[in-house]
Amino acid sequence: MIRIGVDVGGTNTDAVVMRGKSFVAGAKSPTTPDVTSGAKAAIAKALEASDVAVDAVDAVMLGTTHFVNALVRRRDLSPTGIIRLCLPSGSSLVPFADWPRDLVEAIGGRYRLVDGGYEMDGREIAPLDEAQVLNAVAELKAEGCTEIAISAVFSTVRGDMEQRAADLIRAAHPDLQVTVSQEIGRIGLLERENAAIINSALRPLAVDVVAAFGRMKADLGLTCPVFFTRNDGTLIDTVEVERLPVLTFACGPTNSMRGAAFLSGLENALVVDIGGTTADVGEVRDGFPRLAGTSVTVADVQTNFSMPDVVSIGLGGGSIVNADAGRIGPDSVGLDLLTKGVVFGGDTLTASDVAVAAGRAEMGTHPAPAIEDLDGLVAEMDRMLGDVVARSRTSAEEMPVLAVGGGSVLMGPVVDGLEVVRPAHHDLANAVGAAIAQVSGEVSKIVQLTDDLDRDTAIAQVTQEASDAAVSRGAEAGTLTVLSVSDVPLAYLPGNNLAISVTVVGDLNLETA
Amino acid sequence: MMTPVLNVDKPALRRIARGGAVLGSGGGGDPHIGRLMAEQELGDDKTVSVVSLDDLPDDALILPIAMMGAPHVMLERFPAGNEIPALVATMEKLMGREVSAILCIEAGGLNSVIPFIAAAQLDLPIIDGDAMGRAFPELQMVTFTLAGLNATPMAMYDDKGNGATFDTVSNQWTERLARALTIEMGGAAMVGLYPVIAGEIRDCLIKGSLSLAHRIGDLIETYGGQATETLASSLGGTMLFHGRVRDVERRLEGAFAKGSVKIEGQGDFRGRNVVLGFQNEFLSAEEDGRMLATTPDLITLIDANTGAPVPTDTVKYGLSVKVLGLPCDPIWRSDEGLAIVGPRYFGIDVDYTPLDVA
Questions:
Q1: Beta strands A22-30 and A12-19: pairing type?
Q2: Is residue B205 part of a domain?
Q3: Which residue of A has its CA nearest to B84?
Q4: Which of B70, B313, B318 is closest, CB to CB, to A394?
Q5: N or C: which end of chain A has fewer CB within 10 A?
Q6: Domain check: are B205 and B228 in the same one?
Q7: Do the domain assignments include residue A275?
Q8: Chain B CA closest to residue A392
Q9: What is the reported pLDDT for B81?
Q10: From CA B107, how far away is CA B331, in angstroms rounded?
Q11: Chain A contact for B170, CB < 8 A?
């Protein structure tokens, strides 16, 4: 099977061609404002460098920063109303709490609370009141909302009420798109609701983005399906990305970690991705990134959808060095490294200059500068990287550190006592990660153990639900593997309540997908 | 007219929530959701007055307000918002007089900010003090119990408008019965308990807790990762340890999250190891069989990079941390105090030794 992986980054768009599990060719092209022409150029170059004909390509996998950029810039967001099924509970903390004011204005900030929701054990807080829901939708629509998101208390425990409300709205208003919170977030109503609102606000943009990539595909003469990569390193198809764009938010770091693991053949490792301005460190376990356990802040909004647990520091190839203070970063010359860096003939001392002077890297057009306290600066760089690597570890277990990205030359051979490995094609790790993405099913819920339901049975039930979800999303049943199982006992409550989360992954079934 | 010790607006509330997390000693629930609820009540203009107990006449009725139950439930099912007015009305009827001020019963964790919701809703002042000086897991673990004051009459309300009142034979019984009812109410409920008049708590109130929480939050905002040293020196405590988390072990025993955190020394502490034991809150800090600190003194874990307090339920391997030891209120160091919150109550088989701050 031949796959093309594409990563749209802030500076470059990378494309790689993969045959089965082998790397065939790759190329970089500057990211363009319309995104798709940069992607088109990168794919064309990669194909040209390979022996692969356009009509032999089986699938294109895309990782893009479109959606997170729209949110950060408060642009291309649609007016969204949120309906929360919670009454009589919930009024003490209403939707949009703690959002930045300009983002609330960009989305409209409209909400209604209606009867419904569940207790943690699945009892109803109140029955769903259909008339209330329809009335709320009519009002929100009259106020200008074109998108509706729904949340319900403990919908992660029981999702049927949220679904019933969504079906009701779709039947009454075929023109409205509806996001249900359980499809996106985990336990934590406010954060899950935030993710659902953001998803709704991004939907029309997602439709445009899918259409633009469709045109790009036609321009290139590609006839294969196009997929997008999710935050967790798995795929969704174009129909699903139009519905759930928020799931592709953090695919960049994920693709970089997955690609690094694949290129090195090391499935359990720490990955340090160093660009021009930051170093991002995460951990891969069995080839997949470890996910953040708590809430994640995106564009100043707290959310809790599955995102890789990445620790970032302001140290990259373009980081500005203050030699007198012995400090490096967080300010960076960024993209201007190639003109401002000393080894490129500029006059700004950067981390790359230090790396060249220390003999760690060869680059540039000019000789390395003489730096008085070179040893001190190298030690500071190593200390910063050592600290961020140490913070990213989850155990004392020895594991390799994979260095990827253009700035990875800053790293020495050992960090935090761990061996550093720089895989081949490391500067294309993100696109490779996109190309090898799989399909996942993920279920997370609280289960109350009883005499008839022990822990193992409960976990097996949740695992089955996750497997079913993976297959329904296009995974080949024979290739399913359980990626992660976690069960956390919930304190304070008697009756043995477990929060169980299971993720199952499998290869993409191109017959049915 | 009372002169407030503090006028609490949204930024001040943020600082109190941060300080409350430090006084939580790793437990008591994350004040985040409670802070957001209080902010909604405050809006843009309102403030809450924190006043000194000294400014209240002896016969002024004071009502502590708190959230009881699982902090986890608070992440999903938020209160309706009318629980507190219902509680206060019920308590006023039982007591036969009007409430003059709200009190914080537990200055650590989520309950450091819950009383601000009540104060903002009812336009009442909050007393600058509490009855724990930190967070503890059970409702009888208050200085009021030592002073012979009753938790009852107590009222409990849920989000549906269900209310209950308790009349019990001991504060331990109040804990048992109230805990059972919170489960039936969906895992969490609002409570009003230990109704007192100002005259009966002049000697047993831990005074200044809220202004202390505010000051702690302010120091963290100002000093970030360097706040631990400043907190230790300005609050009469000590920095017990600095290092990196090298192991976290968790288990569920009864209704409590228990476990331990192993920390490997860094900097001045290189070559040494400390193990923190927890049951919801951090209860002990031990080095090679020697106790550096135990409950009821406060043991708080601080993120060495940001100064943010780290709760027991989210502490992770690899985090660079500082361990802050703060002395508990002297009232807890009495034999009677140690009997209800000392190390042996929590199954730690050592005699209590006061925190060494020399």
A1: antiparallel
A2: yes
A3: A92
A4: B318
A5: N
A6: no
A7: no
A8: B318
A9: 94
A10: 16
A11: no
Q: Do B13 and B150 have their domain in common?
A: yes
- Give the number of domains in chain B: 2
A511 domain residue, yes or no: no
Q: Is residue B219 part of a domain?
A: no
So what's the pLDDT on residue B75?
87
What is the pLDDT, as a whole number, of residue A513? 43
What CATH number did the domain enclosing B232 receive? 2.40.390.10
User: Does residue B351 lie in a domain region?
Assistant: no
Interface check for A390 against chain B (CB to CB < 8 A): the answer is yes
Q: Write out chain B residues lying below 8 Å of A387, CB-based.
A: 320
Note whether A125 contacts B314, CB cutoff 8 Å.
no
Q: How far is B256 from chain A (nearest CA, A)?
A: 5
Domain match, A421 and A470 both:
no
- Cα–Cα distance, A190 to A194 (Å, whole number): 6
CATH code of the domain covering residue A86: 3.40.50
By the 10 Å C-beta count (0-12 exposed, 13-18 middle, 19+ buried), A429 is classed as buried
Integer-rounded Cα radius of gyration of chain B: 19
What was the pLDDT predicted at A243?
93
Ranges of residues in chain B whose predicted pLDDT is under 50: none
Q: How many domains does chain A have?
A: 4
pLDDT tens, position by position, B88-141: 999 999 999 999 999 999 999 999 999 999 999 999 999 999 999 999 989 999
Domain residue limits at A214: 2-70+207-264
DSSP state of A444: E
The closest CB to that of A92, out of B79, B256, B314, belongs to B79
User: Quick one: A9 and A112 in the same domain?
Assistant: no
Instruction: Spell out which residues of chain B touch residue A301, defining contact as CB-CB under 8 Å.
Output: none
CA separation for the pair B39, B46 (Å, rounded) = 9
- Range with the lowest mean pLDDT among A101-110, A296-305, A457-466, B296-305? A296-305
Neighbours of A58 (CB within 10 A): 13
| A249 lies in some domain | yes
Query: CB-based contact (8 Å) between B266 and chain A?
Result: no
Are B70 and A86 inside 8 Å of each other by CB? no
Q: How far apart are CA B318 and CA A513, in angstroms?
A: 41
| One domain for residues B158 and B239 | no
Distance linking the first and last C-alpha atoms of chain B: 42
Q: Give the residue from B159, B175, B247, B248 with the most A CB atoms within 10 Å of its CB, the best one to mutate.
A: B159
The CATH number of residue A219's host domain is 3.30.420.40
Same domain, A377 and A449: no
Span A79-119, pLDDT tens digits: 999 999 999 999 999 999 989 999 999 999 999 999 999 99
The domain boundary, picked from A404, A433, A462, lies at A433
Tell me the per-residue pLDDT of A306-328, one tens digit each, with 9 for 90 and over. Answer: 678 888 888 998 899 998 888 99
Q: Nearest 5 degrees, angle CA A377-CA A379-CA A385?
A: 105
What whole-number distance in Å separates Cα of residue A285 and Cα of residue A279?
20
Q: Is residue A277 part of a domain?
A: no
> How many Å lie between the alpha carbon of A94 and the closest alpha carbon of chain B?
8
User: Comparing C-alpha atoms, which of A63, A27, A29, A31 is closest to residue A48?
Assistant: A27
Q: What separation, in Å, do the N-terminal and C-terminal C-alpha atoms of chain A show?
A: 14
Within a domain: B217: no
Alpha helices in A188-250 (DSSP H): 189-220, 238-243
CB atoms B316 and A394 under 8 Å: yes
| Residue that terminates a domain, selected from A205, A223, A247 | A205
State yes or no: pLDDT of A299 exceeds 80. no
CA A290 vs. chain centroid, Å, equals 12
pLDDT in tens, A233-284: 888 889 989 999 998 887 888 899 999 999 999 989 999 999 888 888 998 8
**Of the candidates B181, B209, B237, which is a domain's last residue?**
B209
Domain that holds residue B283: 224-346
Boundary-marking domain end, from B156, B182, B209 = B209
Suggest the residue from A492, A496, A500 to mutate for an interface test with chain B (most B CBs closer than 10 A). Answer: A492
Six token digits for residue B259:
């476990």
User: In which band, very low, low, confident or very high, does the pLDDT at A295 lie, cut at 50, 70 and 90?
Assistant: low
